[in-house]
Fold this protein.
Amino acid sequence: MGTVTINGRTLACEARTVVGINGEQIIRPVPVINGQQMTGISINGYNYPPAIAGAVLHLPGLPGQGTTLWDGTGNGNNGTITGATWVQLPSGLWGLKFGGVSDYVNCGAGASLDVSTGDLTVMGWVWYDTQVEDSAMPINKGGESLAVAGYEFEGGTTASGNAEKPYFRICDGGGVAGDSAQTARTAALNDGKWHLLTGTVDRTAATINIYVDGALISSVAIPGTVGSISNAAQALNIGGRTTAYNFKGKIQGVRVFKNVALSLSQIAGVHAQERSLFGV
């Protein structure tokens, strides 16, 4: 509850946001999460609450044109678009379409995106096409080999039939077995639908987890030998690691939460709140 002053009179009011779903605007209270009042984000006339408190990157699809994808967290992790093209969903949201060869978004190597030994959540809406490159990475900040620290989603080879079945992986860059952890693969996601893909690292529970559409798909123990996954020099890329491991399909709403491992109920809540915007 807040106040607003109109013509010298102070009135009590409750914070609200307008959610645009398939052209219909619905007024909802702005949520309070961890004691913090969330403020709305406007996307081409469609307004909805931003990501849960703790996000260091949130790309809600603004401005819908040009070569920069704006970060809504205030951390300045804006993405520079190379090759990918803007695409508008029926709900009015804007996302990016990646051709699978050389398209990507570079969000930089800001300190807020670098994770050491804390918890982590990486989340984004993905629409998988049939992949044309092996090991396509919809979201990557290193971690693709034992010698490279970081975190990522990665698919398998096209020949194996696993290119559309991503897993979530972390690595401390030590270069030997035991320096990484990764989940099992999801089912194939190239079914013509949008999916909310989420990976979490829970250091307290010592697990790495992957979720699809708010449901837990795989939870794997993190070996005690996995240390800091910090890779300060590595940029966070969307749609491929620059001109390699490129993803074919569409991506929207990428979010990173540093030192936060969202729970199953929180992830399911995001999916329930946003799924109508993606026609699922």
In short: The radius of gyration is 19 Å.
